[in-house]
Amino acid sequence: MLAERLNVPCSKLQTFHNQSEYIGIQPVALENLYRSLDILSQAQNEIQAHFFNLHKNIFSSDLSVVFYDVTTLYFDVSMPVDENDIRQKGWSKDGKHKKLQVVLGILVDKFRNPLTYRIYRGDTYEGHTFSDVVNKLKNEYQLSNLVIVADSGMLMNDNIEQIKKSNYEYIVGDRLKSLTKEAKKYLTDKSNYTKLVLGKDDESNEICIDYVVYPYKGRTIVCTWSAKRAKKDAHEREQLKAKAMKYVEKPSLLEQHSAGGAKKYLKIETSKIELNVTKIEEDARYDGFKAIATNIENPNVKQLLEQYSNLFEVEHAFRTMKSHLEIRPMFHWTGKRIEGHLSMCFIAYTLLNRLRLQMNWSEQKCFSVLNKMQVSLVEQKFDGSKLYLRSAMNQDIELLISKMRLNKLNDTVPYDLIMSNI
Q1: SS3 (DSSP) at 288
Q2: Residue 240, domain extent
Q3: Which of 83, 76, 73, 147 is nearest to 105 (CA)?
Q4: For the chain, how many structural domains are there in total?
């Protein structure tokens, strides 16, 4: 199943039918493929601990900053469920709001190695998943002197207090619009800002950003402003405004479709629908601003911004799982099978990321090179004997075999020799 997940991701049933495409393995019954998911479900904590210890030993000097985020994984078929089912409808990050789903929280290091994951009911708010990860880091993995980086969805009083009790430091996206009136006034006043040089681009031009540091309710807020982000925010707002106008002009569309993010720009009354101009103007006030909260004393602003920007490593991991490994949609419906499927995908992603780091390649190149490492079954006309013919070697394959310490396959291998070793 792991080989198939890294080759051509498909259902367990299709995996069963594709067995003939692999050599060197004994045939596996379909029911055993499904039962293996139950075993993976039972062993998921041990599997995570095993990989964590491997990562810790290999990258121990860099396991000081970790990154956490959540995503949603939907199911292909929406079946009736009861309130105890892990599959529930909720806010979908894939836009599949009518589908049943589960919530997946994952923690990675700066190398995108997955350290641990947890699965939650599909209607779980992302902020309520954070405490489990902190507990696991402290109690099970016994980590100290750690900085946890997460997005604004994790900024809850309970989460912050738990991080403090664990003696961890945090860098978390803050909600600028939810701060006090005084704080918002100060943080949106650009006369309070200082310019910071982050580096240089390919043409040796300085990359700059404006920032201000503001103490707020036991935490430090670092707020930044950039013209590039302001342009992006304004563009996205105009798109939502244009979408909202379509519902104003044709209210019946609201009965057929969800307004999504554009709904915040609508004033919906019994007799009419109109644009919420006040809300649009209020949002424009925050164009280009981004707030980040931390409990680090006297933070190095440049370093803090760099660490927060590395949160994209989790997002990249999710994209790889969803696109390359096709972790969803899921076709299972029992808790154990769902957990087993996600455990199997976790192992596949860990192996893929290890290969990516070892080879210093992109995931796409890893897949491309692996796909070229094939053999073909050939029957010789003069005596009817069979042999396996290896595909042509190239520089990338030679390098992979060398770095991964694999045995180089001969140009041809007798069929009987392969079969006698199965």
Answers
A1: coil
A2: 229-284
A3: 73
A4: 3
